[in-house]
Amino acid sequence: MRFIQPTAEPFFFPGNEIGCLLVHGFTGTPKEMRHLGEHLHQQGYTALGVRLFAHATHIDDMKRARWHDWMASVEDGWYYLRDICSKTFVIGLSMGGILSLVFAARFPVHGVIAMATPHHLPADPRVRFIKPLSLLKPYFPKGPSNWYDAQAEKDHISYAQDPTRAYAEVRDLLDVMRRSLPEVRAPALLIYSKDDLVVTAEEKHMEKMLQEIGSTRKESLWIENSSHVITRDTQREKVFDAVAGFIASVAAGDV
User: Fold this and answer.
1) What is the number of alpha carbons within 13 Å of residue 142 lying toward its C-beta?
2) Average pLDDT taken over every residue of the chain
3) Please, is 149 exposed, middle or buried when counting C-beta atoms within 10 Å of its C-beta (0-12, 13-18, 19+)?
4) How many Å apart are CA 102 and CA 106, to the nearest integer?
5) Which helix (DSSP H) or strand (DSSP E) does residue 114 occupy?
6) Are 11 and 81 in contact (CB under 8 A)?
7) Where does 66-141 have alpha helices with state H?
8) Does 69 score more than 60 pLDDT?
9) With the CA atoms of 68, 89, 19 and 66 taken in that order, what torsion angle do they form, in degrees rounded to the nearest 10?
10) How far is CA 175 from CA 8, 12, 24, 181, in A?
11) Helix 67-82 and helix 95-106, axial crossing angle in degrees, nearest 10
């Protein structure tokens, strides 16, 4: 039996009738979103941080994870909030942003916020063969990291390696997302760091997202001096304020 890692548990902060569904990233945990959830709760909102299937337990669990399982985790959270909130916003980091955008294309959310979210994977011919490759190499090292907040990096929780088979699911999920972007109609906010070494500014992820999302209202924000996990690094307060301000504006009908 697997147990959730300490401090990586899902969270729920009850508040008013505006619900915020927070979705963490690939190999990460709800802890990535907890400070943002606390901030939104301080604004009076209801905040629910879900744990994606096979995350925050043991890396071996990821071998059986499929992107449909991760979508189901988001859907479970949305149904919970739907029964207690009149408006729901879905907010995701990295792969959590991918899931949030796909979800927003399929469900009646009032707004979607994607942070440090890739539009595509880096060019690598091995990606085509990643599923059979996973039989030979089940894990591979994580990419470069450049945290600006040393303490946040020290107590950050994620799997130490990237599971190859699960990475193939991210590839497939990105295909679904790109096909779904024109169907996203809810107001959308995108936030990226110019110093992110994972989803880099040079790859034009934000620009492609803005071009393809079908929403009438599309907003974006660049920050600096922050790593990929912008919800926990030095510029997190700027991210929190932007998210809270967007939700307040949309919820008030300022569309």
Assistant:
1) 13
2) 96
3) middle
4) 7
5) strand 111-115
6) no
7) 67-82, 95-106, 130-136
8) yes
9) 10
10) 29, 31, 19, 10
11) 60
b vs e for 1-26, b when ≥16 Cβ sit within 10 Å of the residue's Cβ?
eeeebeebebbebebeebbbbbbbbb
Q: Which residues are registered as beta bridge partners of 112? A: 90, 188
Name the band, by pLDDT with cuts 50, 70 and 90, for residue 1.
very low
Measured between its terminal Cα atoms, the distance across the chain in Å is 47
How does 188-223 read in b/e, with b if 16+ C-beta sit within 10 Å? bbbbbbebbebbbeebebbeebbebbebebebebeb
**Cα 206 to the center of its chain, rounded Å:** 14
Nearest Cα residue to 213 out of 182, 192, 173, 189: 182
**Residue written as tokens 């091995």?**
126
Query: 92-145: per-residue pLDDT in tens?
Result: 999 999 999 999 999 999 999 999 999 999 888 778 888 998 989 999 999 888
What is the value of pTM for the model shown?
A: 0.97
Give the C-alpha separation, 103 to 107, whole Å.
6
The DSSP H or E segment spanning 242 is: helix 236-251
Arithmetic mean of pLDDT, 153-181: 97
Q: Which of 99, 95, 115 is nearest to 107 (CA)?
A: 99
The pLDDT score that the predictor gives to residue 145 is: 86
Distance (Å, whole) CA 149 – CA 229? 11
The three-class DSSP label of residue 12 is strand
